[in-house]
Amino acid sequence: MSSHRHRVTPLRALKGLVLLGFAVFCVVPLVWLLLAPTKTDAELVSGATMSFGSFDQLAAAARHLMDYNDGVLVQWAWNSVLYAVGSLVLSVGSSVLAGYALAVTHLPGRRLLLVLTLVGMLVPPTALVLPLFLEINAVQLTNTALSVILPAAFYPFGTYLAFIYFSTSMPVELLEAGRLDGLSEAGLFWHVARPLATPLMGLLAFFSFVANWNNYFLPYVMLSEEAKYNLPVGLGAVISGTPALNPANGGSFLPITRPEVALAGLIIVLPIAVVFVFCQRYLVRGILSGATKG
Amino acid sequence: MKLPAFPAARRAVPAVAAGLALALTACSGGASTGAAADDPNAPLLVWTDSTRQPAFEAYQKANPDVKMKIETYDSAALLTKIQLFNRTGKGWPDVLFDAVPNEVASLSSKLFDYAQPLNDLVPADVQKNFGTANAGCTIDGQLYCLKNDLAQSVLWYDKTLMGEFGYEVPKTWDEYAALGQKVAAEHPGYIIGTAGFKFVYYDFFWSSGCPLQTVTGPQQVKIDTKDPKCTRVTNLLDPLIEKGVVSRSGPFDADVVKLGKEKKILMMPGASWYGDFVFKPESSYALPQGRLAAAPYPTWSGESKAWSGATGGGIFLVSKHSKNKKGAAAIAQWMATDPGVQAEAPTYPAYGPAAEAWAAKRADDPFYAENPIPALKAQADLINPAESNTAYGVEDAITGTVVAKVRAGGTLADGMEDLQAQLTQLAQSVGYAVN
Amino acid sequence: MSSRRRGTWTGLLFVLPYIVLLVAFGLGPAAYAVYTSFVVSAPTGDALGLDNYAATLGDFRFWPAAANVALFLAIWLPIMVVGVLALALLLHDRPSRFSGVMRLVYFLPGAVTGSAGILLWYCMLEPSISPFGPALRAMGFERGSDVFADSNLVLIFAGIAFITGAGQWIVIMYGAMQNIPEDVLEAAALDGAGPIRTAIFVKLPLVSKYVLYMVILSLAAGLQLFVEPQLIYGITKTAGSPWWSLNQFGYALAFQTGNFGGAATISLILLVLSCVAAMLFITRTDFFSTEVDR
To answer: What is the predicted ipTM?
Structure first.
């Protein structure tokens, strides 16, 4: 490292200030959320805002959540994993294939398909509740894992992103060279495009995972059995029946209060952070640099 | 298949109905009598909130041969789910606990077509023991639900503080207003109530009988915010709000919670559950022991009775699509009336005999300066029947008009015209004729 | 020629799974929603007509919600686009471990959803319990009702929507910039371009498709604003209303009164607006073109 790179110029200071400034708005809420389950409900509203309570409290909050209906929480977590991973595989697979084909092959109706994909993305979810439910019911799938996994496998956002990725970052010369080497079209995708698309797949897998892991609306509509709920729907059902967030609900003796709500939020967020760190490894730089025009 | 049995049963002599009821109480889950399509062995799907879930499980434990499935659900979109089930013709819960009593109007309407009339499914003496509690469940003469708990309003007050200041507990709203002016002059900073929350409807407008949900016939409702029973509320509260003795915030807002913690709440008209769940909890007002007391609600001038409003109070419903209506009704009835279950319930039981058991367990709670039960009991029978449940909600319109005005520094009266317009439209949009 | 046809057939095969999903879970349900919007339920039975549209447009809730959404878009969209690009460019200026951590930090607030999100953002904004309390009080907000005053709502929603929504796009933009070939950046450096000029004149044009994609989707997301007002009204029960935004109004129609026809009309209005805006952007750019076209 040459010394001038470390010099603090006004520009670099400003840059750091902007980046860290925004980070403050993100970190403070997250730290608050981390601290909240370590306090009692009363400490949460009266004590110092960014203080640590005690590990005992944290354990108590965890116990309150776990005790609910004999640990049905574990079942919900497992369902969440199943639904999220199931949709992830189907959605990333279908969208990468489609995005690739849309970007590099002479597909008839390509433009139409792109337009329809865009339209599919812009439809407000409220409009889809009733038709999706009727559809899933018609094939007798309501209240099954597939009722959540299949509709979530439709991933226009990913298809579009894949299309943009392949159409901006996939050098046609590379494909031509592959063809000259005698690769089939499927072989081209597998041996040439797929390795180049690792960062894309990391990105899509991450977004797909987050969207489905957090999915509330679809499972809420499709599932009516507690044992089938995912984490957001299950926790939503527990919390909505208590005055934790809505004192106007009246009384309840369930020990589900604000610290438990915060802990429930963490249970959902922490896996996302882990998956991010994992996927980050695939978002490495430079796979393409020098691959073309070099 | 659609309920062939029920109209037939209703046409039969009342004695048969009474016999049915007797058979039901005698052998719950046992042999079937009369009504043909009802299958006593059909499995029952129960939908509950998390608070009521253990009680349903207790029923299952006590009646192991009843086939039950108990599920918790998120109340926010209950009505949607019922609509979706209506489209597909299956999936309805046989027994439903609903924390929003107003929804019985929708659920029994033609559009939702869900609630089963219970007149013949619940024994007459049980219905009688509910007293007036099930008034809101009765629509066009049919009993569509059983009330779980009551949220009748009482006048909560800090007995210690009242003694210190040398004040008498008001018996009428005129006395309440006069005392408010005195507090404003002698002890500024103390409050005697709140107006900045939707509960202002239940605590004041409903208790006064201001017609916002006054059902006058099938699909007919009276909404008139210019009625003297409405204006007497704004005339009472607006000057007190102006003086600061009635807060512009709501009972759960941080600034009122702070006043509560500082023991600056002299009085608060509010629901029966405020004592245990608003004044007592460490995370809420955290009032020390031996200060809080409940008085009967003040009387509006010209009224002979001290009418309460009702801030919620859950209900049990049975599905008209159920294949085992008797079994479903038996669960609903047990949940609402069993003294063992209700004695442990968090809030005031609607069922008279169960309320006795509930009261007995609480009569000497040291938190209260004096036993609040007599006041709660007196008001339980005095929920103003002028207002009832409608297929449109009032809360959001109240919040968007009068409450919004008060919170922004204006008066309740400022919002009454908008309230009239919004409620009228809301009522018409779900098919009511407004007069 | 034969290779080209082969490519077409393989291409069709590649998009087939996606097309099935698109029709089954996107366009099919959307078409049904369009149909629903024209079905008018009368006491005499269902009929086709425009009554739902007349009722929706004449409802006292429609126009105030439309005005709210317009104001929200006017404030939030520019902040979103400029903010995301600025932060992504700054992060990409010198990729390092720091930028990886920052991206995670920027992303996580958006991952806190449901009940925990409600609790979190309320507690950030209520001066008496917020870690930002001193700052809020310094700005003259003493009580919760000062913060949640009607006139502040649009700013609050825009702020939350930015903090929870920017992270995702920063990750995408950063990923896109990772794909800019190293030699292009080196060439720019050799030409004597500083970091700012490189960012604006080299990097931005190369990721323009992603930018356009973000603008279109953000515009649609803003039009369909739902989560933030629902969240704040859900916990305060006084700030805003259940029909502050158009999408909320549609949701209230469907979910509170079972009026799916009315809800569908609002979804359709939102969809048409989003599509028109999207098409305006697309037809003015070469958004759909690929290297294959040239």
So the answer is: 0.87
